[in-house]
Amino acid sequence: MRLRTKITLLIASSIVIVLFLFNIVTYYMVVRITTRSEITLLWNAAQTLASQPNFFHKELWGEESWLRPLLVPQEMIRFIDTNSNIVVQLDSSGQLADLPVQFDTRSISKTLWTKNALIAYIQMPIMGPEETLLGALQISRKLDTLNEYLTVLITVLMFTTAGAALLSIVGGMYFARVILQPIHELGQIMESIQKNGIFKRVVLPPSRHRDELGRLTHTFNAMIGKLENSFLRQQQFLADASHELKTPLTVIESYADLLQRWGGKDAALREEAIEAIRSEAGRLRNLTHSLLVIANMEADPHRPMIDFELADLVRTTAASLQRTFRREIRFSNELQFHTMHGNPEKVKQLVIILLDNAIKYSQKPVEITLKHDPRDPYIVELQVTDRGIGIEEAEIPRLFDRFYRVDQARSRSTGGSGLGLAIARKIVQSHQGTISIASRPGQGTRVTVRLPLHAAAHALPSEQDHDG
């Protein structure tokens, strides 16, 4: 069953149930009010009889002449003795004589439903001189007019209920269509995206921005935007990775063919080919390692966080790279709180990436500084400064894009793959930090990383959240 049909049936059935209960209450209240009014009239008639001289003389009850003027149409007046025997009975309706005859010392008022009529009935004990019980007075009245009114009322309620049910079905179909229209559009767009692979969004009227369906549509559009961005970057990533892998493989294949043809006769050529193959194989190894690092970070965004000495980690990492590259690295520590809560392996990888870039593109000593953010002592600033060739300001926003290199030839000569800063930014964001670059051509570059000392475990943001 379609959702539209379910909503229509739910609205119609709810209205019918409410109307049914309302009709029952209405009918009950009308019957109760009118019958109470009739019983009040009967008690008034009993008081009128009680004012007659013959009322308290049992031997005079049988004279019908004093009762007949007090008898109204569709009514019966009956006197009974204490033994439940009828002393006198006048019935103007001809249908009330069958009412039970039962003496009772209590005053009684009832409404009786018979097969043919609705009857209001009272019985009042009669006390004689010296508080002796003489018998009881019974007055009953056939409520034909009320019965007709109730029949009309039932008919009206039935027709109004049927009309309301029909209108509720029509209105339910209309409102269900209005309510489900955005959902229907969402379904059509999803089917279109699935069939054609083209990302589309739902046009949201200004009047629907604040309701639940508006928020649903807004969330859907935002999700489609992220999926589209992610899909485009995935395509770009695959294209860039294919290009980066294709170049060294082409070089290796070319030199392998050259060796196969001429390598056996020319020792110099053979040496050149072997060195080129070894160099390109190293670049392939570094590139695949960087790709695996990014894939592992995205596959497992939640990293174990522990407490470690940040200053000691940075100092030992800088000393290790200084020995490896035989370059001077000046370390300065201005921290008062050295303990950081984070992933020490990833922070060490971040320091290696930043120092490696600084060493590659400058010949002068590299400086690395640890200090507190002047606005918040619980945020540490890690700065890596070189006095190298620098970067044009227009190039800086793209430095964190995967495979982006300012100078392709220069990066090839240094072995760069354009993935280092992309990995660095993911590490920083996993620690809820920020990274920025300031540079001038010919003057050098400064990379500033801000990290909270007590970073909570944090999922890596998606590509569309931080690229561009």
In short:
It is built from nine helices and twelve strands.
Fold and architecture overview:
- With 468 residues, the protein is an alpha+beta fold.
- The protein is built from nine helices and twelve strands.
- The two termini are 46 Å apart.
- The relative contact order is 0.07.
Layout of SSEs?
Layout: H1 3-50, E1 75-80, E2 86-91, E3 108-113, E4 118-127, E5 133-142, H2 144-196, H3 212-263, H4 267-299, E6 306-309, H5 310-325, E7 329-333, E8 339-342, H6 344-360, E9 366-373, E10 376-386, H7 408-414, H8 420-430, E11 434-440, E12 444-452, H9 463-466
Parallel strand pairs: 7-9
Antiparallel strand pairs: 1-2, 1-5, 3-4, 4-5, 6-8, 9-10, 10-12, 11-12
Helix pairs in contact: 1-2, 2-3, 3-4, 4-8, 5-6, 6-8
Helix/sheet category: alpha+beta
Strand order of the main beta sheet, please?
Answer: 2-1-5-4-3
Order of helices and strands: HEEEEEHHHEHEEHEEHHEEH
Number of strands: 12
What gross morphology would you assign? rod-shaped
Q: How would you characterize the largest beta sheet?
A: 5 strands, antiparallel
Which regions are unreliable across 5 or more consecutive residues at pLDDT < 50? 408-413, 457-468
Number of helices: 9
Query: Average pLDDT value?
Result: 81
**Considering DSSP H and I runs of 4 or more, what fraction of the residues is helical?**
40-55%
Gyration radius, rounded: 50 Å
Strand content: 15-25%
- Termini separation comes to 46 Å
